[in-house]
Amino acid sequence: xxxxxxxxxxxxxxxxxxxxxxxxxxxxxxxxxxxxxxxxxxxxxxxxxxxxxxxxxxxxxxxxxxxxxxxxxxxxxxxxxxxxxxxxxxxxxxxxxxxxxxxxxxxxxxxxxxxxxxxxxxxxxxxxxxxxxxxxxxxxxxxxxxxxxxxxxxxxxxxxxxxxxxxxxxxxxxxxxxxxxxxxxxxxxxxxxxxxxxxxxxxxxxxxxxxxxxxxxxxxxxxxxxxxxxxxxxxxxxxxxxxxxxxxxxxxxxxxxxxxxxxxxxxxxxxxxxxxxxxxxxxxxxxxxxxxxxxxxxxxxxxxxxxxxxxxxxxxxxxxxxxxxxxxxxxxxxxxxxxxxxxxxxxxxxxxxxxxxxxxxxxxxxxxxxxxxxxxxxxxxxxxxxxxxxxxxxxxxxxxxxxxxxxxxxxxxxxxxxxxxxxxxxxxxxxxxxxxxxxxxxxxxxxxxxxxxxxxxxxxxxxxxxxxxxxxxxxxxxxxxxxxxxxxxxxxxxxxxxxxxxxxxxxxxxxxxxxxxxxxxxxxxxxxxxxxxxxxxxxxxxxxxxxxxxxxxxxxxxxxxxxxxxxxxxxxxxxxxxxxxxxxxxxxxxxxxxxxxxxxxxxxxxxxxxxxxxxxxxxxxxxxxxxxxxxxxxxxxxxxxxxxxxxxxx
Length: 650
Ligand SMILES: Nc1ncnc2c1ncn2[C@@H]1O[C@H](COP(=O)(O)OP(=O)(O)OP(=O)(O)O)[C@@H](O)[C@H]1O
Hints:
By secondary structure, the chain is α/β, with parallel strands linked by helices. Helix 17 (541-554) links the parallel strand 17 and strand 18 (563-566). It is globular and about 90 Å long. Bound molecules: adenosine-5'-triphosphate. Residues 201-203, 206, 224, 226-232, 451, 572 line the site of adenosine-5'-triphosphate (ATP).
């Protein structure tokens, strides 16, 4: 690629991102401002008639307010709503309908910004972005909480591209040049020196991948099919890099992907800091968060003292009636606020500088908390799930080396509201996948021994997607549900792969739910498999709701523990037993979401000991070559069951 083509590629990406941003912002702040409270509430975007029942200092020193329904108006707790933990919200005074539209416009921007940290049936807790002493609303009034669209990630991604475009090609960081084909990729020369591994449990392929990543001069990819110990391999790489006194930035597309690594690094007592809002972090990693580090640092304590002084002066200013005195107090507060900011910044810089490892989301890697720090190595986990523009945020900082880990054969990056034909689907090509396409297999090492699935469960994904490379480790190769404590031996628990063909004779009808009920009944109630070890997954959200209702009425005791979810929510997770409901059974033989091999791959690689597929082979087999192959495989290798035998079994 020459410089001109590089610029064209960037322009195309920026254009696509702008489109994606527009799609995301369909429910934008302007939209929200236009709709009245009632309409927003009906769409699940607002909670009305609230009042602040309590405020306190939460984790990381954040001011938290708890909101409860105004008891004079609402009874029976918080009504159903769509606000989730981690959502960005605005707390606003709720204007009565008699207030004129013009006034409404003026007040739409006012309010307190924050993040939902708990969403219960009686209360909603919001961690505020600023200290509660600076409330810009009258908290004695009735309040509403409105979900706010967030386009900051798009802006940051677009800015990253524009910054890259503004540089002369020769001045670009070398990794960026390789990523865009402006420079060649040279695989590392194998070192003769034997590496001392911290984790001797690593298998040979994992060790090879660690050496490969350490020897690479600029770029190395670790391809980790399901359950192959990608995270374990990355942890070893990070420990080896720390031992070489290198400074590392560890990123991932989501908070959970970053926390997963932070959690596993915890026991090694390496100085590290996790950047990010404490409300969005796993409880187990909060102690490593920047907010907590600030709170307990000497600089942070000083900042706290200044804050207290500000609070005092603020209170005094409210009390005094003397104009001169009040002005003086406000001047003092302004100066203190400035000092507070400077000291806080310095404190953050000190903490980040002292940390060997900094962990943040890809988006956070462009944030001001770490923007002035240099890193030797950037590590990106779950890189197959990151938008290319996201991955470029830390890379544009110019580290000498980047190690990307992921699996481009599982779910791609999520793109807002995309239909099959949308040009936005081009954004599904991650940097990880593009690098493999551009530079070929020499840029990666593929982990091939998996520690999750019974051999029979692993077999089809291995053949269909991983060139038959996967091997089941001896510890899992033949494990069955019946090997679990307190599980008795039945037809179900001794079988790793079962296929209920709801339509073996070629008819159609989307109702295959009888099979689910009988199936979960057989496994959970009769055989002693713990409900928490079972999950039901399906490619369709609508089916999740339908199945939830059925399971709830059929098994009220186990319902809360059996997880029922869409495929997309299960990436990166596992269960002992998975019931996979394929749903599609119709005249037109449409397979919808099932046509995506990557989604299906995620679905079929979640179980450890038992996979039960429920579907209509006639419809499914017509979906794609991959699906046809799978149906043939199941026919030959699975324990086949047909709906009319369900009745006989019960
Ligand atoms: N060399 C090994 N020996 C024994 N167990 C291992 C080894 N490597 C990984 N495991 C185990 O395999 C499981 C999966 O490991 P890990 O979480 O690192 O995999 P992953 O590839 O990141 O998983 P995912 O498919 O969710 O991306 C863990 O329980 C881990 O302890």
